[in-house]
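Troubleshooting entry. Yesterday's outputs looked truncated, so today I'm pasting the complete records for two proteins to confirm everything comes through intact. If either block looks cut off, that's the bug. Protein one:
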Amino acid sequence: MRIPHGVIPTWYHRHMALTLRTDEELERALDTLCEAEGLSRQEVIRRAVLERYERAGHTRRVGESADRMLDRWGDVLHRLGTV
């Protein structure tokens, strides 16, 4: 099957190769983690990105929850703090 010029297949957007430029510090860190955890470079990087993604989402959700609690209980907290 020939793909028409300018049309990118759907699978390409789901599974792409990535080139990562590294410096000496990152190389050492990757080598150390790979050896210590028995994982490939790809898996160490994958887990690091997903962990960071989860943390960012958690931080956002905690902030949103705190905002909701302040909207609901802010006046009570203020009164308790000034008594």
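Protein two, checking that the full record survives here as well:
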Amino acid sequence: MIYAVGIGPGDPDMLPHKTVLLLQDADVISGFETVLNLAEKHFNPNAVRISMGYKDQSQKLEQVGELSRAGKTCVVCFMGDVNFSGYEYLERINNDCHESNPVIIPGISSAQIAASRTLTAFETSVFLTFHKRGDISQDKEFLVSALKMGKSAIVIPLPWDFMPAEISRYLIEQGIPSETKVNVFEHLTWPEEKSYSLTLENCKDKFSDVSIMVIGSINN
């Protein structure tokens, strides 16, 4: 059995109880090393740990699939929540582990934390991620359209090509008022967390690849 679990935004104490119990009992725990490091305090000390990077993820996921078919309980860890910018990785699990439909256990996303910090309701905003493969031009157009409709936007940038400074400049070029409020968060819930209250016009700094934006409604 393969479980795809969200380990939250970074704070190891923000994992759902069900996820903690699963990690404590798992035979195999896998994922990107930076993600595993965040949740390792909950790991079964006897579990096989399979760390992967972008270059060897297919090979490592094949190992996970083999162990699952041998009867092992396997957990693949996702940053945040599987349903927030995680489906491309989920597709890799389906393809490379040669097992479809892993059991998904949601986690807490940095998008939810950012919404809480800025009192941004999801029903009056849109969530958009640029952190994915392929063309993002339609997503950029959607962001402009949503803001012009009076929505707020919770946005995950694309490292390092479409970061907060580039997003802000693009929005101003598309007619979004330069005084529109922007909050940028880095490493949410981590000990090194930082937050910035800006406008599109003065959002010009370079931020970490672990960053997220909340762009206020232009009607406020």
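Both blocks look complete. Sanity check on protein two: The domain at 2-105 is CATH 3.40.1010.10 (Cobalt-precorrin-4 Transmethylase; domain 1).
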